[in-house]
Amino acid sequence: MTTFQNVKTETIHIDGTDFQYRKLGANNSGVPVIFLNHLAATMDTCDPRIIDGIASQYQVICFDNKGVGGTTGKTPKTISEMAKDAIAFIHALGYNKVDLVGFSLGGFISQEILLQEPELVRKAIIAGTGPAGGEGIKNVTKITYLDIFRGLLTFKDAKTYLFFNRNKNGKKSAREFLSRLEERKENRDKKMKVGNFQRQLKAIHAWGLQSPQNLSAIKQPVLVINGDNDRMVPTSNTTDLHKRIPNSQLIIYKDAGHGSIFQYYGDFVKNTLAFLER
Prior knowledge:
- The structure is a single chain.
- The protein is α/β, with parallel strands linked by helices.
- It contains 10 helices and 8 strands.
- It has an 8-stranded mixed sheet, with helices on both faces.
- Helix 1 (48-55) runs parallel beside helix 10 and helix 2 packs across helix 3 (105-116).
- The radius of gyration is 17 Å and the shape is globular.
């Protein structure tokens, strides 16, 4: 049985760049789900419970954008350019209509795709994210480096601090999440190069300083999700997105941080499938 733990990694060549991706599930609806991941994330940091859960009903495609993991090229310094690369990848696979699931940085990119090429997107789920110019987004670089340092001092993955609360529930969820990410043993993705990671941080910083966009132009159904205690992209950004995107729904998970969808992955999958089905 094919799962995200053993699904093969594929490559597609687009204008001089080799994009690596993994595709799982049956495309019964004709509309695949494109998963857009977070800062410093390769395909191996996609939560297998989330990918497998969505793939039970839909075809899910996760990929390494330019300069990430096994995909060649240099990571852009703007979210807008990252979105253009994602759009090129989607079109190269032959799709003219997709659903988006974007987490954190992937949520920024999802917003840009919705604004740049709205006819490409049927529905979108954006989690742990915020609008251009949103509260506290300019501080992501500082918080990220601080928690990387904390992780080095405590011999823990920085995602332990960045994604989860430091209470009993948060610590348990962090251990379980990080354990799931190690389930794939063969054909694992390449680590992201430091220079491209820094370019992602510059893009996020610029996004945080950018002028607000007209999100009322987004007409598609959008599900907006976060935890009630997001340190990286403050939760107020999520409620702001909900207010500014006309056809949006809001879910705030209690006792959860930036990685709320990993802490409550079962409920997230259930809500995602219900939202895509409606």
